[in-house]
Amino acid sequence: MIKSKPIRMCISCRKREPQKELVRLQNCDGKMVTYQGRGRSFYLCRECLHKEHVEKKIAKIAKVDLKSAEELIKELRSNGKN
After folding, report:
1. Residue 21, H or E segment
2. Contact 41, 62 (CB under 8 A)
3. Residue 48 CA: distances (Å) to CA of 12, 22, 60
4. CA atoms of 82 and 77, how far apart (whole Å)
5. Confidence of residue 52 (pLDDT cuts 50, 70, 90)
6. What percent of the chain clears pLDDT 70, i.e. is strictly above it?
7. Cβ atoms of residues 31 and 65 within 8 Å
């Protein structure tokens, strides 16, 4: 029996991809942070991560502070792992 890979959806573009190919983030007291292992989270695809002005859209959808979203997206982009 073939085991299927978990599929998740990008919060920005709504595209469905395997969970391993998405970046997992969460809202922690109104600030956007990388997933810490507890609580609700959301996913962002690598294409949306590198789009311009995606921070505003994500901040609105995820109900997080725009400044924290901008900082985290900038950090994720500069890491180069995504």
Report:
1. none
2. no
3. 7, 10, 15
4. 7
5. confident
6. 96
7. yes
- Tokens of residue 48, six digits: 């949306």
Q: With cut-offs at 50, 70 and 90, classify the pLDDT of residue 8.
A: very high
What is the separation of C-alpha 63 from the centre of its chain, rounded to a whole number of angstroms?
Answer: 13
What lies within 8 Å, CB to CB, of 56 at 6+ separation is 66, 69
CB 25 within 8 A of CB 44: yes
CA of 78: how far to CAs of 9, 48, 61, 67, in Å?
A: 23, 15, 23, 17
* 76 SS3 class: helix
CA atoms within 13 A on the CB side of 46: 11
Residue 23: both structure tokens together: 């970046």
